[in-house]
Write a structure and sequence with these properties.
The structure holds two protein chains of two kinds. By secondary structure, chain A is an alpha+beta fold. Helix content of chain A is 37%, strand content 25%. Chain A is built from 13 helices and 18 strands. In chain A, the strands form five sheets. In chain A, strands 7, 8, 9, 10, 11 and 12 form a six-stranded antiparallel β-sheet that branches. In chain A, strands 1-6-2-3 form a four-stranded antiparallel β-sheet, covered by helices on one side. In chain A, helix 10 crosses helix 11. The longest helix of chain A is centred in the middle third of the chain and has 20 residues. Chain A is elongated and about 80 Å long. In chain A, 46% of the residues are buried. By secondary structure, chain B is an alpha/beta fold. Chain B has nine helices and 14 strands. In chain B, a hairpin with a 4-residue loop joins strand 3 and strand 4. In chain B, helix 5 crosses helix 9. The longest helix of chain B is centred in the N-terminal third of the chain and has 13 residues. Classes of the chains: A alpha+beta, B alpha/beta. The interface between A and B is large, with 57 and 61 residues.
Chain lengths: 391, 292
C-alpha cells in the first residue's frame, strides 16, 4: 500500500525525524489560511507548493513549485490543485491532483538519498545511501552504481550503530551533520521495521545552510500482508489514488489490474493470468486487464469478474481461461451461464476450460442457450478472442 | 527416482484440523502419500481424517512418535511463521508451506532461522510438490501429472498445471513437479532445484517457469550455463505487465530494468536456456529438446 508524501512525513515526524513541514489542503478555499499558517507557525517567508499524488517525478511534471512570496504560493496552489499531473509513473493519462501541500522553503547546502527496502536475492533488508540526492535512484544505479553505498541488515540483529555510522561516513558527513544523520538513519530503520514497510525513501535528505539535516521529501510503501497488524496505517489508504474498478474488484477478493487493451481476461492463478495476457499480445491483440479469480472461483466470482471487466468501455471481447485443479470446471461453466443470463452481454466471449471436469463443463456450455465461443487449447483460445475483438 | 518426496516420505500436516488442512490432507492421503499424522497445538491425542491419523501437539512429538520427516503447513498467516520455525527446530527435513499472506518481515526471519537448521523449506504461498504415482505434498490436483522424465519447477500454480497438461499431450510425464511460490522471500529457489534435478538420474529435461520480478531465474540460468548437462526449457510470464504494478503474486512486480520478462528471457537465452516465447508451446518445445 502506498501513502502520500504528507502522510509519510507525519510518520517520520512521529519518529523524531526532522522534516520539511507544511500544511496539506484539498480545497482552494483553504489556500490563504494554509499559507498563513506555514508563515506563522514555521516562520517561512518562501514556500514550496507540492502536488500530493501516489507517483514519483512530480517536480518534472510541474507539480512542485517554489514560491518566493505569499502571492506566488497562492497562485501556484491555484494552478496545481485540480491539475492533471503527468509523470513517468502516472502513465500518459496522468492523475488529477486532489491534495496540495504548502511547505516551508529551505536553503539546501547538500542533498543525499537514503532508503531501506528488501533485497530479495539476499533475503534481508538493505539500507542504501547515495551522495546523488534528488535524482531517481534507478538512474544513479545505472550511471554510477559506485555512488550507492549499502549496508545489509542481518535478520534478528537489526541496523547496528556502526552501520549507521558507516552510512554517514560514506556521505562525507562530519561533526554535527554526521551525528544528526546517524540518528535519522536509526530512527528510519525503527519506523521501517515497526510499521512493516516495504520501502522507506528520503529523497532528498538535505543539509541546510544552517547545518540541519532534514527530510525534504518522503515515500513510504507498506507490506500488504502485514496491514492487519497496523490498523492506523491501513486507515491512511487514499482510495482516490486507486482505480475504482480495482477497488471494487478487491471487495470480492478478485485481483484486477486495468490495462489499456481491448481483450478482457478472466483467469485463475496469477501466473496463468499473466501468461494469457502474453499470448493475446503474441497473436496480435492487446489485453484490457489482468484478472485472477483465485482458487475458489464460483458463480459469484465469475459474475463479479464479468461485471468489472465489462465496466471498461474499451473491452471488445472477453477470454475466460480456467485450468481447473481444486476448482471444478463444471462449477465455472455454471457460473458463466448464470452470469451471461443476468448480465446484458454485448461482446463475444471465448471460453477455454481445462482440467478437473472439463468435459462435463464443455457439455454444459454447449447445451445451454447462451452464446459462447468454445476453444480447446490455450493458443486456439487466444487466436479466437483476438479475432472476435477485431469484430 | 524423483526429488524431495517419494512414497517413503512420512508426511505430517500442520493445521490438519482446520478446514483447508483437513481437505488437502485427505487429498494427499487419497493420492497414496504416506500421511502419518497432523499437528494442532492443544489437540494432541485426538485423531483426524475420520480417525485415520493421529494428531500431535507439536512437530517434535510427531517426529518422535511416528518418525515424520516431511511437513505440509496450512496454518493461518498470523501463526504460519512460527509453524515453519517449529518444524525446522524439530528436525523435519522438508517443510512445505502453502499459507498465503505471511508478512514479509516475518519471512525474512523465518528464512534466516531455517538456514541455521538442516531443513529444506519450500514456499510459502505455493502449490507444493507432486511426485507422480508416489506422493503429493501440497494442493496440486493429482490427475494433472503422470510419471515421466521431466523435472518441473514453477513460481505459479495454474501455470504448472498448464505445463503438465501440455507435457501429457506430448506423451511426456514428470519426475517431480514443484511450485516454489511467487513471494519476495521463498525458502527454495530455482537454482536449488535445478541442482537437484541435474543430479537426479531419471530426470532428462528441466522446465523452469518464472515470472517478472526478482532475479532468481537469472541466477539459475547462469549456473545452468556451466553446470547443467540436461536441456533446460524456460518461460517467463508477464511480458505485458506494466512496471511498478504487482501482478497477483507479491513478488511479481517489475521494479528494475532487469526484472522485466524481456530482460530475463534475453539473459536466459544467452545462458543456453531454451526460452519458450509462447506459454502454449511449453510441451512441444520440451518434446523437441528431448528428441535432439
Amino acid at each position: 500500500m502506498k501513502i502520500h508524501e504528507f502522510q509519510a512525513k507525519e510518520l517520520l515526524k512521529g519518529y523524531g525525524i526532522p522534516i520539511q513541514d507544511g500544511v496539506t489542503i484539498e480545497d482552494i478555499g483553504q489556500a490563504e489560511a494554509a499559507v498563513d499558517q506555514v508563515n506563522k507557525e514555521l516562520g517561512a517567508e518562501q514556500y514550496v507548493v507540492k502536488a500530493q499524488i501516489h507517483a514519483g517525478g512530480r517536480g518534472k511534471g510541474g507539480g512542485v513549485k517554489f514560491s518566493t512570496t505569499r502571492e506566488a504560493a497562492l497562485e501556484n496552489i491555484q494552478n496545481i490543485l485540480g491539475m492533471t499531473l503527468i509523470t513517468h509513473q502516472t502513465g500518459p493519462e496522468g492523475r488529477e491532483v486532489k491534495k496540495v501541500m504548502v511547505a516551508e522553503a529551505l536553503d539546501i547546502k547538500q542533498e543525499f538519498y537514503a532508503a531501506i527496502t528488501l533485497d530479495r536475492s539476499k533475503g534481508m533488508d538493505v539500507f542504501m545511501v547515495s551522495s546523488e540526492g534528488g535524482m531517481e535512484i534507478e538512474e544513479v544505479a545505472k550511471e554510477s552504481p559506485e555512488k550507492i553505498v549499502k549496508e545489509a541488515i542481518r535478520p534478528g540483529f537489526g541496523l547496528r550503530s556502526f552501520q549507521a555510522r558507516n552510512l554517514a561516513l560514506a556521505l562525507g558527513l562530519e561533526g554535527s551533520a554526521a551525528k544528526q544523520a546517524i540518528g535519522i538513519f536509526q530512527k528510519l530503520y525503527q519506523l521501517y521495521r515497526e510499521l512493516d514497510c516495504s520501502i522507506v525513501e528520503i529523497n532528498p535528505l538535505i543539509v541546510t545552510d544552517q547545518g540541519n539535516v532534514v527530510a525534504l521529501d518522503a515515500k513510504i510503501n507498506f507490506d500488504d500482508n502485514a496491514l492487519y497488524l497496523h490498523s492506523d496505517v491501513a486507515a491512511m489508504r487514499d482510495l482516490d489514488e486507486e482505480d475504482p474498478s480495482e477497488v471494487e474488484a478487491a471487495k470480492y477478493n478478485l485481483n484486477y489490474i486495468k490495462l489499456d487493451g481491448t481483450v478482457g481476461c478472466m483467469v485463475n492463478g496469477a501466473g496463468l493470468a499473466m501468461a494469457t495476457m502474453d499470448v493475446i499480445e503474441q497473436v496480435g491483440g492487446s489485453p484490457a486487464n489482468f484478472l485472477d479469480v483465485g482458487g475458489g472461483a464460483n458463480v459469484e466470482t465469475v459474475k463479479n469478474g464479468f461485471r468489472i471487466i465489462l465496466s471498461d468501455p474499451n473491452v471488445k471481447a472477453v477470454l475466460i481461461n480456467i485450468f481447473g485443479g481444486i476448482v471444478r470446471c463444471d462449477r465455472i461453466a455454471n457460473g458463466i451461464i448464470e452470469a451471461v443470463k443476468v448480465l446484458d452481454l454485448n461482446v463475444p466471449v471465448v471460453v477455454r476450460l481445462a482440467g478437473t471436469n472439463a468435459e462435463v463443463a464443455k457439455e454444459l456450455l454447449a447445451n445451454s442457450d447462451v452464446s459462447l465461443i468454445s476453444a480447446d487449447s490455450f493458443a486456439d483460445a487466444a487466436q479466437k478472442v483476438v479475432e472476435a475483438a477485431r469484430g | 527416482m524423483s526429488i524431495l518426496v517419494n512414497k517413503d516420505s512420512k508426511i505430517i500436516v500442520q493445521g490438519i484440523t482446520g478446514s483447508e488442512g483437513t481437505f488437502h490432507a485427505t487429498q494427499c492421503l487419497e493420492y497414496g502419500g504416506n500421511v502419518v499424522g497432523g499437528v494442532t497445538p492443544g489437540k494432541g491425542g485426538q485423531t483426524a481424517l475420520e480417525g485415520k491419523v493421529p494428531v500431535f501437539n507439536s512437530c517434535k512429538e510427531a517426529r518422535e512418535e511416528v518418525g515424520a520427516n516431511v511437513s505440509l503447513i496450512f496454518v493461518p498467516p498470523p501463526f504460519a511463521a512460527d509453524a515453519i520455525m517449529e518444524a525446522a527446530a524439530a528436525g523435519i527435513e522438508l517443510i512445505v508451506c502453502i499459507t498465503e499472506g505471511i508478512p514479509v518481515a516475518q519471512m525474512v526471519e523465518v528464512k534466516a532461522f531455517v538456514d541455521t537448521t538442516g531443513s529444506r523449506f519450500i514456499g510459502p504461498n505455493c502449490p507444493g510438490i507432486l511426485t507422480p504415482d508416489e506422493a503429493k505434498v501440497g494442493i496440486m490436483p493429482g490427475f494433472i501429472a503422470k510419471k515421466g522424465t521431466v523435472g518441473l519447477i514453477s513460481k505459479s500454480g495454474t501455470l504448472t498445471y498448464e505445463a503438465a497438461h501440455q507435457l501429457g499431450a506430448e506423451g511426456l510425464g514428470q519426475t517431480t513437479c514443484i511450485g516454489i511460490g511467487g513471494d519476495p522471500i521463498i525458502g527454495t529457489t530455482m537454482l536449488d532445484l535445478l541442482k537437484m534435478f541435474e543430479a537426479d538420474p531419471d530426470t532428462e529435461a528441466i522446465i523452469m517457469i518464472g515470472e517478472i520480478g526478482g532475479s532468481m531465474e537469472i541466477e539459475a540460468a547462469q549456473y545452468a550455463k556451466e553446470n547443467v548437462s540436461k536441456p533446460v526449457i524456460g518461460f517467463i510470464a508477464g511480458q505485458t505487465a506494466p512496471p511498478g504494478r504487482r501482478m497477483g503474486h507479491a513478488g511479481a512486480i517489475v521494479s528494475g530494468a532487469d526484472e522485466s520478462a524481456a530482460a530475463k528471457k534475453k539473459l536466459m537465452a544467452e545462458c543456453g536456456i531454451i526460452v519458450v516465447e509462447s506459454p502454449a508451446d511449453i510441451g512441444k518445445t520440451v518434446r523437441e529438446a528431448l528428441n535432439k
